[in-house]
Design a protein that fits this description.
The protein is globular, with a radius of gyration of 20 Å. With 356 residues, it is mainly alpha-helical. It has helices at residues 23-49, 55-62, 66-75, 78-81, 86-119, 122-131, 141-155, 161-174, 181-198, 200-212, 214-233, 242-264, 268-275, 277-283, 285-298, 304-329. It has 16 helices and no strands. It has one domain. 71% of the residues lie in helices and 0% in strands. The longest helix is centred in the N-terminal third of the chain and has 34 residues, at 86-119.
Amino acid sequence: MTSNGTVAATPRPAAVAADGRVDWVDYAKGICIVMVVMMHSVLGVEAAAGQTGFMHLVVAFARPFRMPDFFLISGLFLPLVIDRNWRTYLDRKVAHFAYFYVLWVTIQFGFKAPAFAAQSSWGHVGFLYVESFIEPFGTLWFIYLLPVFFVVIKLTRRYPPALIWIIAALLETAHVATGWTVIDEFCARFVYVYSGYWFADYVFALSNHARAYPMRALATLSLWALVNGSLVALGCSELPGVSLMLGLSGACAIVTIGTLLARARWLDGLRFCGEHSIVIYLAFFLPMASTRTLLLKTGLIHDIGTISLIVTMVGVAGSLLVWRIALATGATFLFERPEAFWVAPKKTGVLLQPAE
């Protein structure tokens, strides 16, 4: 924070790789993306089967912080780029995500259109497709909303950050429910993106402290897990004020866990998932849905929790396999934005790096 109340550029932490990536950020993103796939997998299996399994408890425990952490991390590196000219900023923060949204909403509709048409008509399918550019489609709402958050933060960067944060916190606490995804999710999630932006220095300091004092960090994580789990079990996690507290504390917990994993160099596969979180987010729906259908129809496995776990693992691994096949066959446009769709000079790398 500078003396005039604006946000200072976040200094690069010590644990930065040669390619500019921050180790614990990728671990934290890996945890988040696996939890996102898990949520969709578990709830999809349970809805289709009409019963719940042991994985339901894991999804319930993660619900208060699963998306808050993803959004907080998305705001962490904004101080480094917020003052870029509008052309470059819009290219990196709007056009980048808009390209993937348009492409993958079209792909998802291609797979789901026959089922939609069977329920109504092909004319209605066309309407749903057009509507998806106003009302985000399925799992892609996160990709849709990120550019909205980034533009709002740049437009308000000259206003007192404390004022913006208070307004954002009040919007989250209000639990706005209009039925429109953009409005409802903006109100529910903007505070976390802005917290990542405004409190970036403190988040990096938290990570550095966890790296320096791992036993103290583990003790704090144990207390957090007890409080989070208890409030979820009591049905209090969605209460006004409580949801914000659990969202922020859970985001800090994931930052801490990511730091400890990075410090120990454990679960490199999780870090890999974090490095390619956008790949998983875009492509997991197909292996997830096909595996769910296969397991439930064949009846090879009867335990719902086990089915949910397998669907989650296949969703993650399958999306990475789709990515590798795309690279091998020259279909790189599925995960890399072609130069024709860049509106500002292209820098190194094709997938958005944390500092972008």
